[in-house]
Design goal:
Two copies of one chain form a homodimer. By secondary structure, the first copy, chain A, is an alpha/beta fold. Chain A contains 18 helices and 21 strands. The first copy, chain A, has a single domain, classed as Trimethylamine methyltransferase-like (TIM Barrel), CATH 3.20.20.480.
């Protein structure tokens, strides 16, 4: 057994991260269902949309679908799709798109084998080791944005990391999107809760990117995610938001809320049939509105705990559903989102093994947008500061795993092994010394010192260390430069819209 | 957002596990290196064994290899292999074998897409939340065997879960193997530390299985793992042990100790070249001794922390090395072992995310024997009771992930979705009620109650819950029945061998 040396006491305390990277998964996508099985899901979803159909609660949406050839009935919200029509509409969706940020280095590509991670989103509560759990608020919202900006593993903030419930609902989106636009230089997000919030978000995108309407429509600059009201329903505010997004060429991820046993059948395969039907119906609607507009296929299929009715995440069922969703999205050639999800109440071992089950399934399944990448707890009811950091470590490890190895002759090291020879060691070999500084992944959180050193240093667990790291990141946070002109325009816009009363309450 | 219901307070406290399962991985094996890249490793290892060769410290081993056609030199311990000879010897190894246990239901198949998990092995220390860390001892050794017997996820105890250092070294193996043979009915293991310990282990195997020598040789009943003294060396006690095993048809896993940057080149690919050379040389030796005898290819390639020299496990480098090892073993059609490894000092979040990185790589890479499946900490310097339970949960989740889904018409649930209809829920549907009890994975450790219930119940973390579970498992432990006759013979044998002085100290 190798003796583990003591850590060098002179080591600097500064936080070292991997660089910001646009990730690609160079390895093959996993397929756990056969082609026939994927076809079975496909045909079952088509049959469902043909025979049962889906409710589109917004009359304008039904009218658009009717014009496109779908079946509607007077006095009913139900829309039924002929399979050929559905496939024709879905096939208009582009296989990839780029989402633009005010910092062009943070533009994101969605499609092919791209991998993007986003912060935790849409939780009503927030917690940390120091202060415990509290209701979402603007202070914590801004802190989480700052962490999202500082952590190189965060590609996107896709939804409020925590709901700033202390802000008035009518103007909350203005403060929230303005904070997102100033505290980070990563792409923007707005909720599809009616058209006003989306339109305000798009105005802010134009202001901070300094672009006109035509450029906005050519360069997607704001993303949104809509959940179906599963089973088989899209509601009015969501459809209004979708219309506002899609008409101006902005990407929408259609994510059915298919928890097997609750809002979807108790079988994983049945839940996937329903997910597929709901996602395709949403995508078809978007393409009927604006053919060729960017969309995403959203997978959120998991199961509930049948004992308590609580949603469960990072389960074996979730893992299988996520990988099969990857197969479905590739069949339709549409970028895919899923989540780094867990159902733990604390940033403990459970939160991590459930997250890892989710994360590996996302990576194996070639998911393009891994939502809730950093900081999710309680199946989405809480954002947690320590989990943000534990997740950052896990995402860094995954980022490094996705860097392909070189098989150049010097890497094969036959000569180096020969020089060291039997029974010796490589610490001092020239081959080692030339490479050791950047040879291996260097962790953000993990403590690799030996037990005695770890004990002397206070037996700090990974979660406790994560607590120190987020505080240090916040202390060292630097707001990304926003041109004076843009900042003033943004401020004027927000003040004007607040004076106008913001958006209607929902 | 779904409201999470309170847990039913009448729920029973008994520990529920998944059933004991012989696992197969029905999904495709991952390949992260191209065929050319695998060939590059292959040819580099052959060149290394041809030009640099390997030290076999036991003269008898060198003589056997010389007779088989390898190059040896008088006065040197070095053995060099012609590539054709090496490939010819390696090709004699069988692609699979069955390891027999006294309980035939616990016989294990190694090869193809079989997945077997073993307990933590060979740690000098042991720890738990209650008593902290202490030196290995027979009491904890027996406790860990009992947990290994009780936990259905444990297929094999492959090495002492902790070294019983309080037992005299000359007779330790007798007490240790006798305890393994009585406290569990899973397959046996002995250390290849000279021939005496192996031969004693084989006698015990014959006694408890009630078989004669010929049956033993036809039905492998004891397994051992040998580590190369990397780089490029096999020592005398190990080679003696190998000879005793292989001559009697018992399986040996040849596992190079290739920590990149220490006992192997600092490049992962270089470490794999060395691993491949050392493993193939060991396998070739076994086949020269007894053509067709069962062997395993062992992968343990990881890296050291270049700041401290400490070994690191569950790193991105470990993940890549493990998956590529799978590709190599499949090329040679030899069963493969790797590990569920981590370098954490506590059963905390780090121990879990590092383990998950290891575990997913083992599953993705189709590793047949996942060593240290339950309870490893500190890179192998400590066995931990809580980690045994956390790992059991992770292995159960993996076991469930490996159960393929049914795509039968009823599972697709088109009719059930139609019956529930838009905007309703599935809790009360006939399709749900027929299936809900066994629809989903039920966790061993995870707490899926809502935050308020979890808080009322004392905010128990997964690690704290694991502490309660192992105590309950030990309290409920039942020794598996061993026939009176066998038990008496075993006792007689151990007493006789102790009286004879046991085995030489090493």
């Amino acid at each position: 057994m190798v003796r583990r040396a003591r850590r060098n006491p002179r080591e600097s305390n500064s936080i070292k991260q991997l660089p910001y990277r646009h990730l690609r998964n160079p390895y093959p996508a996993l397929a756990i269902a056969s082609e026939d099985e994927i076809e079975a899901i496909h045909h079952a979803s088509l049959a469902l949309l043909r025979d049962t159909g889906m409710r589109f609660l917004l009359p304008e949406a039904r009218e658009i679908l009717k014009q496109a050839g779908a079946q509607t009935e007077t006095g009913s919200e139900r829309v039924r799709f002929d399979p050929d029509l559905l496939i024709e509409l879905v096939s208009k969706a582009p296989p990839s798109f780029t989402l633009h940020a005010r910092n062009a280095g943070h533009n994101l590509f969605f499609g092919e084998n791209a991998v993007n991670f986003s912060m935790v989103a849409s939780t009503p509560n927030v917690s940390c080791l120091d202060k415990g759990r509290r209701t979402g608020n603007f202070h914590d919202y801004c802190n989480l944005l700052k962490l999202g900006q500082s952590l190189n593993t965060t590609h996107l903030i896709a939804g409020y990391p925590v709901e700033p419930i202390d802000l008035p609902p009518t103007t909350r989106h203005l403060d929230a999107i303005a904070a997102l636009a100033t505290l980070t230089d990563k792409p923007l997000y707005a909720y599809a809760l009616g058209d006003v919030r989306i339109n305000d978000g798009l105005e802010i995108a134009k202001i901070i990117r300094g672009i006109d309407e035509q450029t906005l429509q050519e360069q997607p600059s704001l993303i949104t995610i809509v959940n179906a009201n599963s089973p088989l329903q899209y509601d009015i505010p969501m459809l209004q938001g979708v219309l506002s997004m899609v008409r101006r060429g902005q990407p929408v991820a259609f994510t059915p809320f298919t928890l097997a046993g609750a809002m979807a059948p108790v079988t994983v395969v049945g839940a996937l049939v329903q997910q597929n039907a709901e996602a395709l119906a949403g995508i078809a609607f978007a393409q009927a509105v604006n053919p060729g507009c960017p969309v995403m296929y959203g997978s959120f299929t998991s199961n509930v705990d049948m004992k308590s009715g609580s949603p469960a995440f990072g389960t074996p069922e979730y893992a299988k559903a996520t990988v099969i969703s990857g197969q479905l999205a590739r069949k339709y050639q549409i970028p895919l989102r899923a989540s780094n999800a867990n159902a733990s109440n604390a940033p403990d071992a459970q939160s991590v093994y459930e997250s890892q089950m989710s994360l590996w399934s996302c990576i194996n399944g070639h998911i393009n947008l891994i939502m809730h990448g950093l900081g999710w707890l309680e199946g989405g009811l809480c954002a947690n500061y320590e989990k943000v950091i534990l997740d950052a470590e896990m995402l860094q490890m995954m980022s490094e795993y996705l860097q392909p190895l070189s098989f150049a002759e010097d890497e094969l090291a036959v000569k180096a092994i020969d020089e060291v020879g039997p029974g010796n060691h490589f610490f001092q070999s020239a081959h080692t010394i030339e490479r050791y500084e950047h040879a291996f992944y260097s962790p953000l959180v993990s403590d690799w010192s030996n037990f005695e050193t770890w004990q002397e240093n206070g037996e700090v667990t990974a979660t406790q260390k994560a607590n120190k790291i987020w505080k240090q990141l916040l202390a060292e946070y630097n707001e990304p430069l926003l041109e004076q002109d843009c900042a003033e325009q943004l401020d004027e816009f927000v003040q004007k819209r607040k004076a106008e009363g913001g958006a209607p309450s929902l």
